[in-house]
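User: I'm preparing a small set of examples for a lab meeting where we compare how different chains pack in three dimensions. I only have the primary sequence for this one, and I'd like the structure in token form so I can line it up with the others. Please keep the answer compact; I'll paste it straight into my notes.
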Amino acid sequence: MYFLANPAQALPDSVIFRRVLQATGLGKTTQPTPRLTQLLATNTKVAGAQINEKAQFELNRNLYEVCQSIRNQQDHALAFVIGQQLALYYKNKTLPLIPQYDGEETVLAATLYADKMGIIYAYMAGFPMVNIYEELIKKAYKSHHLEQDALLAKRLARAKQMKAQLKQFFLTFETANLLTMINQHLAATQCYEFILKTYQGREVLNNAGVNSFQVLIERLIVDGYRPEFIYPVTIEGSTDLSRVVQWPSGFEHYKIKQVYDSAARYLRQAIKADPAYAPAYLNLACLQTVRRRWNLAKQNAQKALQLTQKPSLVRRIKAIQAIIMYDEATKGRIKDPDQQKVAADLMHQLKSDDQYDYVYLNWKVMVGRPPGQPKGGEGSDEGRETIAGINLIEGKTRGNDDDYLQATNTAKAQASQWVRLGKGTYIFEEKIKGYFARKIVLVHTGRLIYFLETLPGYKGTTVRGNLQAWHLPTGKQGATWKDLQRSKHYGVPKSASKGVLRSHAYHYKIYHARQIIFQLDLQNRVMGWKLYNEVKN
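Assistant: Understood. Below is the structure token output for the 537-residue chain.
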């Protein structure tokens, strides 16, 4: 799931800096945006690395060479150094990576906080490095002849506990993304609550807001009000979250105002983190439209339009503007057929002949015709998928449902790690012996959702065909998404979604009917796949 650079393929330092800066989830604040200076400077005055009073990131040669010495993880080490300093900068601290320490508690607390957030920022940018943290810190101090430093001892003493906490955080973050991708928004709610206790980046806040928006839509449906339109909400890395599913028991406890307020709060926090983040304004406009707060929705849609030039996002913003106009002309105090026609014309202008999507379906609603069904491709995506030898529906690799549901000692013992998110809500992660695969099990309100993922080295097949030639983690040319669509085993999915998980290095395509998620790299090559299976109570 990560971009694993090697010495021959290391990313430019400026790219790493930009990714990590973006991963903080913070935009323009009262402070100037930090800038990258010459990394290979011979500045020995800087103790490792520091963001100076001019908001310039400085790194001395010794620490840079330490980063380069971490085998196959050079980019990841540098990403941590950058992230650690950004964490201090945004906390209004000006400590170097190797600060002077005479027992002062504020220095210790700030350094430990920055270490934790530096690992998180590196992870969010696509450079996981929690497993090399201790090695990197030791080498950094050694390069400055400070092997006996008291602060180093305290950092290393805390490393084991911090790593365990962070691995739980990363597992929960991954599970939240997976649940959102397969439209299990209610189950994702507690994951987001857990994540936001530690990390409040704009993308996660935005995604939490969209997740609550989907819960709101379902709550409205339960109460007998089915929204007419498919609202063009935008989650980071996804372009279609409009499908709805049946919610499990426990949903009745979510009141409409409670869910609306939750969604609005998350989106406003995303805007506070970055006032120039257009997707959050768009999603807030969608939310306010559902609640018929049209004037506020217009303002936020217009603000979103002013902040972006990205064609796909502009199209979505103009779509919500047309929906607002039509909705107000239809359900407002004064019914206005002329404005309804103008709105329909605006939506029609956004249509594309080769796209049968939310624009087309919303336009159909406006012109008073049934929207019909999305078109399917030549191939079939019916029938559940099974990775050969690892069956999530039955068999020894599935595990015992009751053990997971009751969170027994057996379930905990066989898990490589587990997280308790709340009463009756757990996540278990297991490595499957004998296979290059792992399993994630979510327990929520008396039901289970299983995820099975192939890992690098897996050489099996699926029941739909041999994908071994497509699973090439070494970076060699593999099958592309277009190849998959042309395959007799898959074809164009009748119900597909897109998703981005954790980093900018990979994205996903989902065949919902087959319950399979293909992992693609930036060149759209198939690098692996996941299966999922829901067990209802």
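A couple of notes for your slides: The chain has three domains: 13-167, 183-366, 401-535. The first helix runs from residue 13 to 23.

User: Perfect, thanks.
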